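Hello,

Following up on my earlier ticket. Below are the three sequence lines again, exactly as submitted.
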Amino acid sequence: MEPRSKSFYVLSAFFALFVLFLYGPTLTIGVLSFQGEGGGLTFPMRGVSMYWFYDLFEQQAVGDIWGSFRRSIVLGFMVMVTTVVVSVIGGLAFRKKFAGSRILFYLIITALVIPSILVSLGVGLLFSQSGLDVHWSTSGFGAQLTWTLPFGLLIMFAVFNRFDKSYEEAARDLGASPWQTIRHVVLPIIAPSLIGVALFGFTLSYDEFARTLLTAGSYNTLPLEIYGMTTNVTSPVLYALGTLTTLFSLLIIGVFLALALLSNRRKARAGSDAGKAV
Amino acid sequence: MFMKKLLENHNVTGWLMVSPLAAVLLIFLVMPIVLIVIVSFWRATEFSIIPAFEWDNYAFLFGSPVTYTVFFNTFKYAFITWAFTLVIGFTVAYYLAFHIRSLTWQIALFLLCTIPFWTSNIIRMISWIPFLGRNGIANSTLMSWGVIDEPVEWLLFSDFAVIVAFVHLYTLFMVVPIFNTMMRIDKSLIEAARDAGANGAQILWNVIIPLTKPGIMIGTIFVVTLVMGDFITVRFMSGSQSANVGRLISNDIALLQYPSASATAIVLLTTVLITIGILLRFVDIRKEL
Amino acid sequence: MTKFTSRTGLSRRTLLKGAASTAIAAGSTTLGAPMLWAQNIKDVTIRQFGTGVSNLNDVANKVKEDLGFTLEMTALDTDSVTQRAATQPNSFDIADIEYFICKKVWAAGNMQAMDTSKIANYDKIAGTFRSGLLTPESTIAQGTAPHTVGFTSGPNGTDFVQEESGWMTLIPTIYNADTLGIRPDLIGRPIKNWSELLNPEFKGKASILDISSIGIMDMAMVVESMGEYTYPDKGNMTKEEIDLTLGIFTEAKKNGQFRAFWKSFDESVNLMASGEVVIQSMWSPAITAVKSQGIPCVYQPLEEGYRSWGGGLGISAALSGIELDAAYEYINWYLSGWVGGYLMRQGYYSAVPETSKEFMSADEWGFWYEGKAAEGDILSPTGDKLAGAGEVRDGGAFLDRMGSVVCWNSVMDENQYMVRKWNEFIAA
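Thanks for your patience. The regenerated structure is below:
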């Protein structure tokens, strides 16, 4: 191991500051979620208590947190699964240049860069002009896909660009059918990236606001519900919710890491080095 | 027999495989945009829109001085945010790519950076007030360190606050592509440069930066389009005192003035696409992924 | 329509309310419903949406208890409410909206007129909503007064008529008189006029709300108070008047008069509670929210008078059959007093004060309606202390407050022009 150069420490300090900056609001939320009973959304702190955490689980004066939370989770999973499946298949398709793939590619880029409010407006108009009702599982779902699919696809493109075709050739030489090649060679190799796409898809959907604003219909997703609550609610229960979601996500990531470690250990024991190719 | 032949044609299989993608894009991207274009020529009353073909909406848009102020603001925010995210993002990506040795640590640090974003955007935005406000953490800390005597007003509800929020939200979008490109730099090139006698700064300037250009371009595209399309952050962090194009659109939508919202939206979309088109000239994105 | 799954698990709040409400429920159950009706109605779900002012989960719970059917509530901000009323008729059954929103969306035809002969307490509705006159000597305030958009010509009318035609657009439920909120501890002197909002003494510490239909009225009150101009009708300005009003405020804005603008209720509370702002347009429950944090805040009665708003319930045009019957049941129940009492204990006025009186204690009635000093602690419906013994409600008695209303939240003829100019003001 080479010794660390001076710039390492400088850069580490910079990185630490950066992380602190990123966590600023999260820390503020964390501190304020322990706000005393009589306190509001800002300092000064009026006592310290776990009151708002308990309050979170009771019915609120206005708004339905758990219902919208459930909807957000369901929608997030729908988007996640769809994004992974479509991205993988799309990535596989784009490896060969088929007719019209250029146009499709530019469409994907357009979907990525289009301001979210336009998607919201357009999809909302589309449904209302054609007489269909907007609903979070149809119009909301579609609008969110226009955001997550480009991300998933771009990641898959990057992965396949670096993919070593010789593995597939070897499989073919050994007599594997295309489907077998995909199942036993390609998928295990790109599996880590798939997890990345899945995480991305879920996160982007879970926190999505602008595109769902006009396309969610009568029942709100969690971000929309919180937005609705901020128009009427002033209690730190929102902060308690924020802290809990942070802890929740720490938990999920912890689980993922544990799974990854486990599967690495299992693979090492089995003597496989799949996944190292990318 | 014919089916088999058909399926062997890789154009056909290609389209079959991307058909769900194409369908989603068609229904939820192309058709909405077409509809917005059409509606931008319609007329509106208090609560409904009437099919028509008139240029009124565009005429009003281009005739109003507010439009220009607002577009200028949009570009201003985009540019300043880009500058900051570039410097910060590049440094962070450099640190992660070249100074962190193991893959596990890289992933761990990345995840560390993404956790704050799992808390709802809205809640995080509300929390800027206790952080930057007159009685907030930032001011209190600065006062207790003796740096200032009175709370600093412009930390919140100002352009500064808007930029801070943008940088906070979007730096990671710059870090990821740059990191990606940096990881693909052949380490032997750097060794060669060092062997040829270049010091750290020279390596950075002559070897790393040119090779990272594609990543920088992609990051720029992300950040610029996200800032230009945003409307909530601007409204909230400036205390509704400042506007960008997204706000114009959202105000119109809130008041059911869909035609004028559509007209503004089309102009915004065109502007964004032109900007991206220019940026894409500098990098072939398909190759550089 | 999905079933509303109620949450099990009692909190101390529900226990307290349960005790109080069982006593009251015994007296106010629905009028002798036949068995079949009672059975069917349990399966009915009514979807209501509106601003958070009255979309309270407590009301839904009480409806389930008293009437048997399920009330699903969705709370949105003012602009989204307007949008939904106008463009998504199938997404709601009951619309809980303000009268000025009604003026905007009624002609869209998404709501049906209500037959006043089916409304039991129609005669007890405050005169403001029927003839426009609170008392026989009242003058009708400027702007979109509720009675001007309260009646329509027939069951499917999309117009407004100016007499009590027997068909109402909205059944009035709630209203209040609004003024400026101040931090007396940070200002330190009496505030008497609307013009104080633009006083350079409060530079960088003022705020106004960013909802054009309401904000423009506050602006007009300020301009008139400054002596700059007297409006023939604040609620219906000409283009020049709009330009004048917004011009004055744009200049103030450029001079840094405003700390921020607020669009949602909790933003206004935060601004006041954190001390970022010392004088601003405010809504009554925001004042109570700030007060309940122990921070002094006053809803300041001003010489020039109040701006008022009113809200009511409307029925979707798509409703029919048993759901329509359930909707009428609900509305009748709404006016029968429990909700009225609940709202009045938050500082609003019920459109049917007589029935609400039965659900308030004498002390509460004295404090909130008659403007008398409180004898004991005054608590909000959720148990927070709002005032102590000896305190008087800001502004005093109902007749003092509602009697000093000089304008209503309005939709003007030049609304689209006004909105555009408002956008320019925000962007300036």
